[in-house]
Amino acid sequence: MTIMPNSMEGRDMAYQMHPNVNLRKYEKSGGLVIESGDGIYVFDSHGKRYIEGMAGLWSVALGFGEKRLAEVAKAQMEKLPYYHTFSYKTHGPSIDLAELLIKIAPVPMSKVHFTSSGSEANDLAVKMVWYRSNALSKKDKKKIISRIKGYHGVTIASGSLTGLPRNHESFDLPLDRMLHTSCPSYVHFGLEGESEAEFTKRILQDLEDLILKEGPDTIAAFWGEPVIGAGGVLVPPDGYWAGVQEILKKYDILLVADEVICGFGRTGKMFACETLGIAPDVLVVSKQISSSYMPLSAILMNDRFYQPIADESDRIGVFGHGYTASGHPVATAVGLENLKIIEERDLVGNVARLEAQFLAGLEELAKHPLSHSSRGIGLLGALEIKPFADGKAGDAAAAVSAACEEEGLIVRNIAEAICFCPPMIITAEQIDDMFGAVRRALDKVQAARA
User: Fold this and answer.
1) Contact 63, 433 (CB under 8 A)
2) For the chain, counts of helices (H) and of strands (E)
3) How far is Cα 424 from Cα 18, in angstroms, rounded to an integer?
4) DSSP 353-386
5) In this structure, are residues 309 and 319 in contact, taking their beta carbons and an 8 Å threshold?
6) By the 8 A CB rule, do 231 and 151 touch?
7) Mean pLDDT, the chain, whole residue set
8) For residue 97, which of 294, 274, 316, 369 has the smallest C-alpha distance?
9) Could you please report the per-residue DSSP string of 385-412?
10) Which among 320, 323, 279, 282 is positioned nearest to 299, based on CA atoms?
């Protein structure tokens, strides 16, 4: 297709720098312009309809075009379009949403601090961990452990927590206080002849060995997604999280659960911490908190975490941190309405009811000659694709992803997998339609290579 300079695609190529792309390639090829959305579907600038199999960026729980969220945003803009939460000021929407989050939290929590993205929230949580260690006169207890293939964002601190080379290369990351332990993905890191139970025992030992090597008195916190998302939808083996928590308790190390992707119903319960039996000190949420209709994230913290920070702010005279948009009234009003809709429409229940069909559909696709295996939980899943013998790493998954787009389905290829995270409003029939498009894409790629 020829892209005209004055078209939307052409003007985009000329003026906008995009994230997560090969910039030189984008200058030549341009991107897909999405014009509108309705339910689980989006439409491009030429009118073609796509199933949004990734809910945007793992985030549009309610689907596209939810009028109640638009109406709430309009009403709040007309009443109080902006105010801050600095310097002893506050407003109703942020109060209401903070109260609701404390009430629905998977474990007892004390306070909520609002930010605008998952990266931003994880970045601040890192600063708060360090601030707390100073408050407790533990000046050396500053190191943080996360996992290989884990994803926690792209700011300097959250990007350092992230365990993906593409987010470190040429950025001078990670910071030297950030450590990475083994990834809990048996399909990728299990040794030949090693059972899943043996694998779990080995990577838990890796964690404890790292703590002992560095010195328990130097380790402040452990960061982990209950289910690794942007690393390729990696579901931990049985016993993993119980073992992690036992080790952290033994050495007095904080647990930060990153539910930016998993939170608000994605795993069939309101929080993945409930699904997997995790009791964090800090819970980071974003994405589905507002269905991404507005930028919003939140840090929930328990009293053990909060009280030393409050004491230190009293000693110093201020908690010297803040973002212009923290607790933005329109964003928090939309977030509050979004969570009300999730509850009213029992969308968490919808995920739980559709989980078996969703996972069975993935398992069936895994029987295709191009497929290797499948994995998932709730409405979060991945189909592992066999690498091309004559290609580069990721080429096969990229080819299947591109073929899916041709078939009217947007997915995301990560390493050798194509990943799925559809809006939580999806129906049983629409799941069949989505996987039907994947099967056609797999057949198309297979035929092209025959």
Assistant:
1) no
2) 16, 15
3) 27
4) HHHHHHHHHHHHHTTSTTEEEEEEETTEEEEEEP
5) yes
6) yes
7) 97
8) 294
9) EPPPTTS-TTHHHHHHHHHHHHTTEE-E
10) 282
Backbone angles phi, psi at 89, to 5 degrees: -115, 155
pTM of the complete model: 0.96
* Exposure b/e, 402-428, CB count within 10 A at least 16 = b: ebbbebbbbbbbbbbbbbbbbbbbbee
Question: Tokens 């942020």 appear where?
Answer: 94
In the structure encoding, which two tokens stand for residue 267, read together? 């795993």
Are 44 and 50 within 8 A, CB to CB?
yes
Tokens for 235, please give them: 């579901």
Report helix angle 347-365 to 428-448, nearest 10: 30
Tens-digit pLDDT profile for residues 117-169: 999 999 999 999 999 999 999 999 999 999 999 999 999 999 999 999 999 99
Contact status, residue 338 vs residue 290, Cβ threshold 8 Å: yes
- Segment 30-40, tens digit of pLDDT: 999 999 999 99
pLDDT tens, position by position, 277-298: 999 999 999 999 999 999 999 9
Q: Which helix (DSSP H) or strand (DSSP E) does residue 434 occupy?
A: helix 428-448
Strand partners, 36: 43
